[in-house]
Amino acid sequence: MALIEFADFSFKYLGADSLALKRIKLTIDEGEYVVITGPSGCGKTTFCRAINALVPQFHRGYVAGNVYTDGKNTRENEVATFASVAGLVFQNPENQLVTLDVEKEIAFGPENLGVAPDEIRRRVEELIDLLDLEELREKHPHEMSGGEQQRVAIAATLALRPKVLVADEPTSNLDPTSAEVILEIIAHLNKRGMAVVLVEHRLDLVAKDASRIILMNKGRIVADGNPREILAMDLCEEIGVGVPKATQVYKRLKTRGVELRNVPLTGVELAELVQEATSR
Amino acid sequence: MSFLEVFQYTRQDSIMHRLDPRSKLVLSIVCAAVSMMFMEIIPLLMVFICLLPMIAAAKSLGRWAKSMKGLGALLVFVLVFNTLLSPAENPLSYSLSLAIRLVALMTSFSLFFLTVQPDQLSQALIQMRVKFEFAFAMSMAMRYVPTLGQEAYAIMDAQRARGVELDKGNLIKRIRNIIPIIVPLIIVSIRRALSIAESMESRGFGASENRTYMEMLRFGKRDWAVALSSLLILILVIYVRFFVGLPGWMLWGLPF
Predict the structure, then answer these.
(1) Per-domain residue ranges for chain A?
(2) Interchain CB contact of B199 with A (< 8 Å)
(3) Mapping DSSP to helix (H, G, I), strand (E, B) and coil, where does residue A178 land?
């Protein structure tokens, strides 16, 4: 059974003119690292919300088709049922921190679900350790930087022990350095076995870790597959996706008749491939 | 408004901070009640002198002194106007005791607000059988005060950049100037509220009837001691004040 299954799912927000998602059909399995990208307004956020039933339970509208997360239909179960399956991290960290210190924030989710106090305490300590939050322990959210806030928000989401982490542009409000830290944490979580669905524009930072890239445009999935295959397509430039610099160089070389053996995603890979091509 | 600082929680590790919020609530209400019961200088001064070591126990004397300095202007105002306008026999004596009473009252309540974190307050309310949603809404309001303040400043700057002259004109014009601040602020806040709700919903807010709490407040021996001795003192003071009467030397007042 797939972890997440979209079965011909379409959705239109109440009062909107057009569909936000059009007949989405795909499955995501455990352990995958899926990066979703596409121009703004293409339905990425709606896609994330559909995974844990925020769409159509919290955001109402016209629905067709079904989404099954961990085998449960999102049209028939409440958002809270999915809290311990799909953990969502949102764009604005400030809006995800609802208590006055880090410990309480991490405890908030498990408390809601009625987890035993000893177990909550254990998870709090574990996550403070995992995400390196020790020095923030007693800070008010207002005293933290955006990157620190987002780290706490991720910890708070993980406290529910979800099977998949769904992050909707978690770095868009952050400076480059904090963004890199957050993306490293996400890659690390994936290596520990957690499935990740990440909406992200900065492909040069995430393409190397992703196992799969999905391109969306106007509510549809226009391409879905291995990062190297997808980023080598001309479609990326057509819909305005920021292809990594190394891949751009690869494409430019190709138009000039120099074919590298593989599609590079990082500068290091590019250097190696070029070296290989020239020594041949 | 610096005198309000004395009502703002400060993170400290002190005997006072470690007490249960409920016992501190009793203590601070008793202190306030006692200072409300007297109109004479000596008993009020005695209450005040008893309060000082408690503030010291909360390691907050510095903060308290700063706030009292801020309160200075208001105290002078109370003194002058009451002395001039009061129909009492000894107006200066009367207004002096009013001023001491104001300080004692503020100090009593600051004992509570200085040392109780808003989250602890809501936890105390929950354990006093207030509904979780209600108590949580209160601590969340506290949580988002600075955020909202920041947003208000950002909007003010944005409107100034568009040529709204916020601090010019007569009173009516100034009041009308609030509109371009308040309307965007409300819209932004509603949006923020939606986004917060989305995040809370995703973390199972309101999911289980049997919500658990990582930390429950425990009413320890020390808390019982504080609460019971406060109540005992209250009873004693009421008895002396209403049934026995104050000894003569305590009734002393300034002759004018």
Answers:
(1) 244-280
(2) yes
(3) helix
